[in-house]
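pasting for ref. prot 1 ->
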Amino acid sequence: MRKGACVALEAVGMVITALSAQAVIRGLLDRDAELLWGIFNGVPGGLTGRMILLGVIALVAMVSGGWAHTRQKPDAEQAGNPGRIRGRGTT
């Protein structure tokens, strides 16, 4: 996967996670609130079914965003890399 696609997937994952997690928290605190403008009103199971679906969506978005973050090629060497130090000779 290219770096631009990984960045886009990471950004979309973060946005979806933030929106769905906020909706789940709002649903827990205010039982009468519509979750995400009523998009999930047709989900069977009532409020519990909608909250479970939003939790699963948040989890999938978080995992895909994290996966995309780890797949990006770093521009510089990361700290703690056991590789050789560049520019210094061994004595």
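and prot 2 ->
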Amino acid sequence: MKRSRFTIMLLMTAAFAHAQQRITIDINRKAQVIDNIGASGAWFSEGIGKYWPSEIREQMARWLFSKGFKKDGAPEGIGLSAWRFNIGGGTAEQGDSSGIKDFRKRAECFLSPDGKYDWSKQSGYLWFTRKAKEYGVETLIAFSNTPPVWMNQNGLGYKTEKDHRSNLKVDQYDAYADFLTKVYQHFDKEGLHFDYISPVNEPQWDWSHPYGDADQEGSAWTNSEVVRIAGALDTALTRAHANTKILLSEAGHLAYLYAKDGTASHQIQALKSGGVYNLSHVPAIIGGHSYFTDDGDSSRRSVRVHLADTAARYGLQYWQTEYSMLADGYKEGHKGPRTAMDCALFLAKVIHDDFVYGNASAWQFWNSWEPGRADMDTRYYLVALHPKDKTYKDGTVTAVKNLWALGQYSRFVRPGMQRVIAESGDASLLVSAYVSKHQTVLVCVNDGVEPKAVNMAVKGRKFSKARYYCTSKDEDMGAHVVRGKNEQIELPGRSIVTVVME
């Protein structure tokens, strides 16, 4: 193909002027196809969706799901293309006797021990899930942290024995599979279609706590138990003629997908040899969580390269299905609190590395909202909750920089786009590029404190117009129009900039 270039000059202000750097995007060097970019709405969504003022809830939904634009051209929201809904295990009905300390992290169950279903349960979670559907979110995922409590060996939503085995009773696999299938069928008939059902979550962790000291619902699963529940669920879904897929295995640490020790290690190899990818409802996808693999650039990238190589060898796509800054990697060696922009830049770096080094086809954040400050240490959330009191039945919210950092990817890197190779030659300027039939999207993460002067050359495609969007300490996806291909544009220090070319 004849080489063509569309050059955009991203130039520093005169105070920082120095030699330009070049970003090269090669349309012909293709990598993975992007399926979705999303987030979860667990825990706090239940109370918010039930009780908080409608204008607050509507604003939260608009921030996450809207693909519209404001009058100034800035996005209304980050246009997520996936939303994760938690199928609860019944700890909320148990109340304090559930043994889960925080009432906000107990979840209702649609099924009662007497075998009756109550579809009015989890109405808060469902409020946001229906909003996702209304806004046109492309992929809905229903995930479960525990089977219904009465199906479990100890009658609780978490383990009390540290044996790294499933809490599910050995004679309840079919019952659990039937439960998940009936939940899918009910909401599918309502027009709320779940594209994926995830029956296990972080099977590597033992999820064991003394009674009364648990943090949330959860269960360990061995590889053989994951294979067994996948088979039971596939049978139940086939019997129901269900048009959905099973998402496995939501590993709690990426290295468990290809290495490590324990009963749920080497999961790519184990699940492949266990035959789960021969089941009609199990796609060639392996899901894992990027927690605890974010400390240091070289280590973070090494884990993802190893994962990408192993997944490719076994013919699987890698999906990153949960991440927030649980560990201290986000501090990057600094002591004391980190600003909201520090957290946002670190989040963007992890997303970049999952796409560029891990070849992730999907990327999903945990958790969309939690109580906390909006200006410092925003490590866990996209939206900061400011509850009015301890009942969590009213409050206000603030969008934090993490929301707009994720939005630099989710709003413009749409389902079906393909990553192509982009190179900057500057370790502090991370770049990734994605193409559709009519667009090329470049995401730049300037981790340096100085503005950058960048000359961008696109090989293999011509363009007539471009726009760019900036998240920095001063902007939240601020919109800018490129009026000519030689126009000077500032790429600020410590910023994330997305250029959309058509």
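DSSP finds ten helices and 21 strands in the chain.
Residues 173-189 form the longest helix (17 residues).
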